[in-house]
């Protein structure tokens, strides 16, 4: 996220200076996208909490189905993957639309992905395994989808821990290299979901398609705009 430019509040244009300026050609004028309102971040924050509020309401009303633990596990897992895909979609959407204000929400969406992953893992550890270390380790070793999901969670920890402005400045270019792990995490999340589903794979297939499109667009962008590609076209 780049710094916000300061407005020159002390400079005022005089009538004579306006007359000196040549008229603009309407065909060359470009319209900037409307800026997101100042309450955008609180709004996105509240909307991102709605899945958790809905799950709490269902639990309060005893409407989580015959297997509440499975419902909580699946719902929190779904939303963690959705927020992860939304985070990956911010940059392509910004480049295609020119809406630079989308970058203001990328970090928040990424942290909410980590938040729902923590809830997903918490449901598994507390309500499914009851904090039994031997059962947890045995489950991780026996079930490949749990192994893959746990690996994705471990990779998310350093990304969440280094999401502050201070860590961005401290790590410099290494910060960007570290956060490229999000692509691998996205693939691990999709594989985890795919292996978990036993019958209907339509939703994992949808997420896999979205992730493939996002990663494909990024690969195309880097191939076209990389310094090597620029030199080869000269």
Low-confidence segments, given as residue ranges, are 1-33, 230-234
Q: Strand percentage, roughly?
A: under 5%
**Helix coverage percent:** over 70%
Task: Please work out how many helical segments DSSP would assign.
Answer: 11
Summarize model confidence as the mean pLDDT.
Answer: 84
> Any idea what the shape is?
globular
First-last Cα distance: 31 Å
Task: Spell out the helices and strands N to C.
Answer: HHHHHHHHHHH
What is the rounded Rg?
A: 23 Å
Q: How many separate structural domains?
A: 1
Q: Structural class, from helix and strand content?
A: mainly alpha
Biggest pleated sheet: none
Record field, number of beta strands = 0
Concise synopsis of the structure shown:
The chain is mostly helical and 234 residues long.
Kindly describe this structure.
The protein has one domain (40-222). The longest helix is centred in the middle third of the chain and has 30 residues, at 68-97. The model is unreliable at 1-33 and 230-234 (pLDDT under 50). It has helices at residues 15-20, 40-60, 68-97, 106-128, 133-142, 144-161, 165-171, 173-179, 181-196, 202-225, 227-232. With 234 residues, the chain is mostly helical.
Task: Provide the fold topology.
Blueprint: H1 15-20, H2 40-60, H3 68-97, H4 106-128, H5 133-142, H6 144-161, H7 165-171, H8 173-179, H9 181-196, H10 202-225, H11 227-232
């Amino acid at each position: 996220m780049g710094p916000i430019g300061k407005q020159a509040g002390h400079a005022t244009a005089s009538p004579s200076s306006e007359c000196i300026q040549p008229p603009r050609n309407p065909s060359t004028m470009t319209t900037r996208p409307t800026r997101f309102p100042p309450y955008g971040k609180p709004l996105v924050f509240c909307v991102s909490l709605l899945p958790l509020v809905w799950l709490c309401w269902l639990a309060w009303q005893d409407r989580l189905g015959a297997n509440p633990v499975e419902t909580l596990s699946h719902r929190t897992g779904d939303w963690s993957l959705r927020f992860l895909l939304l985070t990956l979609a911010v940059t392509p959407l910004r480049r295609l639309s020119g809406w630079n204000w989308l970058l203001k929400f990328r970090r928040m969406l990424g942290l909410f992905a980590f938040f729902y992953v923590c809830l997903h893992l918490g449901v598994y550890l507390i309500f499914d395994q009851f904090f039994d270390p031997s059962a947890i380790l045995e489950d991780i070793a026996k079930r490949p989808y749990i192994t893959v999901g746990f690996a994705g969670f471990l990779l998310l920890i350093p990304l969440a821990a280094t999401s502050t402005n201070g860590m961005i400045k401290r790590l410099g270019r290494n910060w960007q290299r570290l956060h490229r792990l999000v692509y691998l995490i996205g693939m691990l999340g999709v594989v985890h979901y795919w292996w978990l589903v036993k019958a209907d794979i339509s939703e994992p297939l949808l997420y896999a398609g979205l992730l493939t499109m996002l990663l494909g667009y990024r690969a195309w962008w880097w191939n076209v705009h990389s310094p090597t590609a620029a030199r080869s076209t000269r």
